[in-house]
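User: My collaborator sent over this chain with a note saying "see what the structure looks like." That's all I know about it. Can you take a look?
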Amino acid sequence: MKRMKTIIPSCGAGFTLVEIMIVVAIIGLLAAIAIPNFIRARATSQCTACINNLRQIDYGINEWALENGQSTGSPVASPSTVSSYIKLNSRGSVPSCPAGGTYTTSTVGATPQVSCSLSTLTPGHFLP
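Assistant: Without extra context I'll predict from the sequence alone. Here is the result:
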């Protein structure tokens, strides 16, 4: 005697539309929380890197002034003037602002001796 194969219908084999919509809503909520924090963290890290570059250029100006007999009030042509006194980036040039700002120098002994064009941003790119 032959036995018949019985096919059992598979109930609940997939996700329902409501379940998929709930998952998408949860992912959207997590993204809404994470993206502003990511942007804030990126801005803070760019500011920190810029301040470190400013500090390095400032120290380079001081060393340049001492070695070249420059007195307080002597003008500094540009940040590249002190390139031999600071650690250069991988391209062999003076580090630039990671947020796209430009560095300008003033005079020896001024406060500050070097500044970034993005000093008015929050967080500010300026030497404390």
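A starting point for your reply to your collaborator: The mean pLDDT is 90.
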